[in-house]
Amino acid sequence: MKKILLIVGGGIAAYKACELIRLCRKAGIEVKCVLTAGGQHFVTPMTLAALSENQVYTNLFDLKDEAEMGHIQLSREADLVVVAPATADLLAKMAAGIADDLATTLLLATDKPVLAAPAMNVRMWQHTATRRNVATLRGDGVTILEPDEGPMACGEYGPGRLPEPEAILRAIQNLWEGSGEGVAAHTTVTTAPPLTPPASGRGTLTGKHILVTAGPTHEPIDPVRYIANRSSGKQGYAIAGALAALGARVTLVSGPVTLATPPGVTRIDVETAQDMANAVAQALPADAAVMVAAVGDWHVEAAAQKLKKEGGAPPTLHLSENPDILAMLAASPRRPGLVVGFAAETEQVVDHAVAKRTRKGADWIVANDVSGDVMGGEANAIHLVTADGVEHWERLPKQDVARRLAERIADAL
Ligand code: C5P
Fold first, then answer.
1. Residue 387 clears pLDDT 60, i.e. is over it
2. Distance (Å, rounded) from C-alpha 323 to C-alpha 83?
């Protein structure tokens, strides 16, 4: 059983630590809690003890029997130290190496990876001192999640809200999943402010979890260069937003794009196809999956050092095939009930899409002709290929394609 040491800092978001403990326990993770003096103003040690079913530690000098449970041992017996909420003060002390209470002493003494989920007022998060501390900590190898953006308890609006407990749990699992493969370094999780869900009933997706992939992938050639494609992510983001607007819990696994996270969507940022495949596997189970990402077909046997022009022949890139995420998902024992793939074609669009539906094991294929300005453009003319035949949709803005597809998905689930 994996173990975490959860340090609960002093902020209004401390109440969300309770839900995080519950989710971790449900996921089979043992949790031991340390509650700072500030944290005790918001939650009690007894609440955390009841939820974690473990003793809660609050005071450096309470560790009365050093031989039995010294702070060094406490900091090292877990597989991961999680700080949630990580206040501006805690981040500053961590960055400076200050150890003036139990939490900061444990953070200095630990030999385990540390993940921090910040929560603070937007101005505090944006303050140069906090930016500097976050940069220092990231440079030191601490994983710091991006806070969510939205209305804050203090009445202001902006980034600074604690990421939702589900997103923190996924980040913990991604970190473990990625260990040894360098995945976690490229994976961040953010959740956009929640939407008011529509009333449940026909045509809504309340209670459904839907996985969406979007954007391109970046396949590194060396530490500074990569291979990418022209996908903007617009269609996938519009679909994620339209599904959330119908009440679905949406996990959007996104390659590098410059778009804002649609309201109500939890977004996991990845770079490579392998990262995307791992994040998709982590996000299961799902009721449906809509794979819109333009996944790179190959990755480069990347160089550890920057390639240099040395006057001789240009370097040769050796390419290996990437996993086909859609085909793997469709064949997996954890296959979502509805698997939708996309097909970007430049000729014989429908014929290729019909063949692709069978070859990849998808239920539906949304085919589009990318010989024009679809990649990066605002509109899309699509053909929906299902087991029942082919529907031809008129050219529509990508937002309208998304809404119509989301309604079709709601009818099918
Ligand atoms: O084979 P092709 O790239 O045309 O297939 C497109 C569909 O397959 C899209 O739904 C895309 O997201 C998915 N795909 C994938 N993993 C890959 C390649 C494509 O999930 N490696």
1. yes
2. 34
Which residues form ligand 1's pocket by a CB distance below 6 Å?
Answer: 213, 273, 291-293, 295, 322-326, 341-343
Strands (E), 203-304: 209-214, 219-220, 226-227, 249-254, 265-269, 288-291, 298-300
Does CATH place domain 192-413 in 3.40.50.10170? Answer: no
* pLDDT class of 149 with cuts at 50, 70, 90: confident
Q: What is the pLDDT of residues 335-358, one digit of tens each?
A: 999 999 999 888 889 999 999 999
> Comparing C-alpha atoms, which of 300, 343, 299, 341 is closest to residue 322?
299
Catalytic: 24? no
- Average pLDDT for residues 379-394, to the nearest whole number? 92
% of the chain at pLDDT higher than 70:
90
The rounded Å distance from CA 176 to ligand 1 centre is 26
What is the model's pTM? 0.59
Q: Which CATH class is domain 1-185?
A: alpha beta
List residues bridging with 294 in a β-sheet.
Answer: 216
Domain coordinates in residue numbering, the chain:
1-185, 192-413
Residues near 409 by Cβ (< 8 Å), separated by ≥ 6? 205, 210, 243, 288, 290, 338, 340
Best probe residue, ligand 1, of 230, 319, 324 (max atoms within 8 Å of C-beta): 324
Q: Left (φ > 0), alpha (ψ -120 to 50) or beta: where does 203 sit?
A: left
